[in-house]
Input
Amino acid sequence: MRKYFALALALTLMATMFVGVASAETSKVNWQAYAGTKLQVMFNQHNYQKAITDYGKLEEFEKKTGIDVEFSVTPEENYFDKLNIALSSKSGEPDIFMTGAYQVWEYASAGYMEPLEKYINDPTVTEPTYNFADFYPGVVGTLAWDCVPGHPVGSGSQWALPMGYELNNIAYNKKYFDEKGIKLPTTTGELLETAKSLKEWNGTGSYGIAVRGTRNWATIHPGYMTLFSTWGAKDFAIENGKLVCKLDSPEAIAMTDYWVKLVVEGSSPQWATFTWYEAGSHLGAGVAAMLYDATCNGYFQNYPAGASAQSGNLGWYAGVVPDGSGLTEKDIKSNVWVWSMGMNANSDNKGAAWLFLQYFTSPEYMLFSGTDGACADSPRKSVADSDAYKSVVGKSFGYLEALDTLLPNATIQFTPQPYFFETTTEWAATLQDLVEQYRTTGSCDTAGAMKALKQKLDIAVEDLQIG
Amino acid sequence: MATPKIQGAADLNTPPLKTRVRPYLIVAPALLITIGILIPFAMAIYFSLTSYTFRQPVANFVGLRNWIRMFQDSQFWNAVWVTLRYAFWSTLVEMVLGLGIAMLLGSLNNRFSRILRVALIFPLMVAPVIGTIIWQLMLQSSVGIIDKFFNLLGVYGMQWGASQKTAMMTVVMIDVWVNCPFVIILILAGIQSLPKSPFESAKIDGGSAWFNFKTLTLPMLKPCILIALLFRLMAALQEFSIIFALTKGGPGDTLMSLSVTAYTRGYMYQKFSSALPFILILWLIVNIAASQIVKAWRKAQYQATGKDLEEPARKKHGRVRKGESA
Output
């Protein structure tokens, strides 16, 4: 009897072992399948790029796969020009490139990007631990689109995978604000007054708030577009089957009018030459007291210790709402930018390229990039919920709280359409004209300028077919 | 009685085949390069008549649609004006400054002037884009050395490239810094090749420095000056890298020259065929300006040296210069 009992127990134990083994999926991925392949990767100059290239992670990937990776790094102001030319040549190079959500509208429409769902869903090339569902749907969904102008993102093919995302809020010199007892502005009126009062707060040349200002689409998309959307304005709408520009709406005019005043009275006189780099570095250098820009732009000035002169002195909060709107910070409609990586549809090395994409968007790598890699705003829930991530990013005062406040309403506030570069660049040029007018004469014809811009952009998009 | 033809006399008058073919062989490499340039030029004209974009790379013929739209676009006329203004001011400053500095260097012959001659060439060794980035840093309000210098003089808040009022001045300043050495070298070489005897005679006759400059130096240097003008004007009309690196054509459309506008529309907006008419008009402007300067140079060359480079060709074809007899 005892013998039978022992046998039954042993068999039961063995059965549970096999069950345990069967339920843990075995990897079918051959990471050495493309050994000897040479991959070309184009990066924009960014902390997300540095996390891949500067900490030995690329060498780890090369050792694991036998794939030789050649990469280039280009500053953002010129990156997309270079990428446009490379992709339109259809040469197949680069195999992998950094891109943003908005660029997917142009590149995917033109057939430059490889849809990724067939790789993601293929267990022979994707590890079971990759866990695509771990990405925030609101983040990874911005990189999915059905390529119909006017249709929202979130459906259709998955064209790229996120490296990190950016919301837009206000970073400020917390040390100075605390020392002087300055209250954080919560409305647009308060922000304007605070920015004006902070002129030369830290010596000659210092000023209240840094925002971007070049003749470039990147001037429109961070703080400007966030406040624009919170104000209730839209860039385009679909009317009678056509895309119609809405930049002449009362909300768009009022918001732009406010922004012009903020720039002239509260920002740098050299605003029109400010890119991401100037705006962020001025906060870090103690030239700007505040920064209305991407969440992580200020973060890179604050962490790690010694990243800038003001490292450790900065804080974050959600931002401001229009005066008299009755809105609170929870109603702020932050625009979202997602730095991501895509695969060239004309690449000759798609298998190897997928291994690269998978590796550098995996949970393991993203835990590193979100902590030691100094890349805040991890697009993976598991990483954002981890103690390791929270202990690092939480050191930046108010950073995680600001993200929690903004996330529910954050999305891409632009209307997806393939002429995004053209429409937003002309928009930025109009903004520069208005700022110059206001600076020179003390007033500007915002309504006239926005109406003229609307006419120009209606012509620019008139040939788009709305499905 | 007719003079008997001496056998072989015709052979003596006709050069050997090797000699006759030689000019064509010398020109052949240049011809190959010219064909290499003409093919893209012809393609540019062709694509300007189509609806080709990088997004939809199909060259459907649309006739003059792109051209008509360009002439109706206020941005085109602004671009022409910006191009001409930029070329005028940058060339003018470079020529005047270049001539002045070359005259000074030519009149000195000591260790200091020899060191200065080398030092003044340094900006030419810097790529215009790098030069622009250097200047951008120097002009920055937070860390820029030039801006700090202006602060010492009590001038604050200079906007440089960030203002529509000062953006043109800023890019011209950078252009002058990069390209003036070219003018200096060219004119200095001209000065050093001038004959000494007229100046010695003028000195004996008691001519003033201004008189010598006006009646001797300037006329003899004119061909050299015109060559420098030709190169600089052609380059200034086509300038792209300095403007693009500094402001991308902004603020607003202040610096949107023909080349920057064409690049923006062609490569940033990906509307390739509608960008080409801009660049073809630029070619036309450069062509007209260059041909006028070359005409003036030939005339100046004749006046300066008494040599007419076209004389052999004119005599061969029976053309006479005004005032000459055949």
Q: What stands out?
A: The radius of gyration of chain B is 26 Å. The domain at 73-307 of chain B is CATH 1.10.3720.10 (MetI-like fold). Chain B has a mean pLDDT of 87. DSSP finds 14 helices and no strands in chain B.
